């Protein structure tokens, strides 16, 4: 279970737009055992050499320092987190860090089922399960792997363990539109949150056309769901939430829409990302604002690292559009989501 230890003295940190730093998305690896076409090419990507990835010790040190700056929630991401060896012992140590009171996980579910009892014991509050379709053939086509049965085994194991399950489904024109209703219907008899995510052109794609060119934006997704389920009732969400959540009459769970490409939620964003090689991103769309690996391996003191993190967060883009405009021209073609922590 998460440690009841007394939290460290905290000096809350706000960016220049008045947003607090509270939530760390921690990528433990850039490797993945699926090859989802919207994330990476079929042959995969060029992975970072092992020695260039942060060690677990380095991740723990950084997370502990961030806890003194107001971070309370940590979500482990990848790539696929369970591809990295010794992830569970790392999570056990992470759960003991003073000040961290919410640990969650994003996974594709292929390797997760055997670890579910341990996740429950550690007090993991929620697991986001990437699942773009319930159709086995379409799953194999989208991910280039025939692994849907193992993902569904994880889905049911999480529910049985009492862990909150959030389905993350990327909405792709011409690929899984026929699946949106069946995915949303999972919320009818099960206490799950099904969230539909606008597709983002991160697999070497460009943002030049902008959100207006997106065939299935957040508005159209909602309209599509309402055509099948009737009016969606908005749910009041906490500050910093990325999803607009809704209830469907008669359903136990909820549905949500994440306007990841339209970027409608930037005004309350309270998160930062730590990539597997130690890069700090204060926005999904920026080019990275701080190399913590260089600090860690260059002998920087805790105070020096905290100061560098503070500077990086205080000069944060107002939103994803500003962050994108600040990228160098040669970086306007975007990397795989696996390299930036989802």
TrEMBL record:
Record-linked Pfam families: Mob_synth_C (PF06463), Radical_SAM (PF04055)
Pathway: Cofactor biosynthesis; molybdopterin biosynthesis
Function: Catalyzes the cyclization of GTP to (8S)-3',8-cyclo-7,8-dihydroguanosine 5'-triphosphate.
UniProt KW Signal keyword: no
Keyword Cell cycle: no
Enzyme Commission no: 4.1.99.22
Positions annotated to bind [4Fe-4S] cluster 2: 266, 269, 283
Binding site for GTP: 25, 75, 106, 166, 271-273
Protein name: GTP 3',8-cyclase
HAMAP family in alphabetical order: MoaA_B (MF_01225_B)
InterPro entries: Aldolase_TIM (IPR013785), Elp3/MiaA/NifB-like_rSAM (IPR006638), MoaA (IPR013483), MoaA-like (IPR040064), MoaA_NifB_PqqE_Fe-S-bd_CS (IPR000385), MoaA_twitch (IPR010505), MoCo_biosynth_MoaA/MoaC (IPR050105), rSAM (IPR007197)
Entry keyword set: 4Fe-4S, GTP-binding, Iron, Iron-sulfur, Lyase, Metal-binding, Molybdenum cofactor biosynthesis, Nucleotide-binding, S-adenosyl-L-methionine
Cofactor-binding details, from the entry: Binds 2 [4Fe-4S] clusters. Binds 1 [4Fe-4S] cluster coordinated with 3 cysteines and an exchangeable S-adenosyl-L-methionine and 1 [4Fe-4S] cluster coordinated with 3 cysteines and the GTP-derived substrate.
Subunit structure: Monomer and homodimer.
Signal peptide per UniProt: none
Gene giving rise to this polypeptide: moaA
Positions of S-adenosyl-L-methionine binding: 38, 79, 130, 200
Catalysed reactions listed for this entry: GTP + AH2 + S-adenosyl-L-methionine = (8S)-3',8-cyclo-7,8-dihydroguanosine 5'-triphosphate + 5'-deoxyadenosine + L-methionine + A + H(+)
Residue numbers binding [4Fe-4S] cluster 1: 32, 36, 39
Cofactor: [4Fe-4S] cluster
NCBIfam families cross-referenced by the UniProt entry: moaA
Family: Belongs to the radical SAM superfamily. MoaA family.
Domain Radical SAM core residue range list: 16-231
